[in-house]
Amino acid sequence: MDENGEQAGLVPVQEALERAEIAELDLVEVAPNAKPPVCKLMDYSKYKYEKAKKAKEAKKKQKIIQNKEVRFRPNIEDHDLQTKVNKAREFLDDGDRVKITIMFRGREMAYLDRGPLLMTKIMSHLGEDVHMEYTPTMEGRFLTTVVTLKKGGN
């Protein structure tokens, strides 16, 4: 293609380079695998600038989902539980995923049955529009799961 965007047909390489020099443009190969290869006369630095500008604009519009973590202990009191659940809810409302961790230390390891009960309590406080991505699993001395908002919820 020439500087006006019109097809020039089959042109020898030397003649195409001369046309580019006369028009003060660059000869850019746009389809190297085609038979014959397709080239275009354009201002390559302007093309690169516009491409970078479009990529930057697209990056601005995308939502980055972060992973947040809220840790609980099995003997937590109701008010402390509610405070941490409210913080987890804030993270969820901001569009983040929340990893809920129940930490067992020392003698608390003898009462592992309290973990699933606490997890059920936490889920009931978070509300119906929240779901677990996977069932709570024991990883060493931590009982963990990840929760997100259900699609369409908010």
How many angstroms separate the termini?
51 Å
Q: H/E order of the elements?
A: HEEHEHEHEEE
Q: Report strand %.
A: 15-25%
C-alpha-based Rg, rounded: 30 Å
Question: Which quaternary structure do these chains form?
Answer: single chain
Structural domain count: 2
CATH class of the largest domain: Alpha Beta
Known CATH architecture of the largest domain: 2-Layer Sandwich
Mean pLDDT rating: 88
Instruction: Give unreliable regions as ranges.
Output: none
Find the CATH superfamily of the largest domain: Translation initiation factor 3 (IF-3), C-terminal domain
The third-level CATH topology of the largest domain is Translation Initiation Factor IF3
Most strands sheet: 5 strands, mixed
C-alpha geometry: rod-shaped
Strand segment count = 7
Structural class: alpha+beta
Specify the number of helices.
4
User: Which percent bin holds the helix content?
Assistant: 25-40%
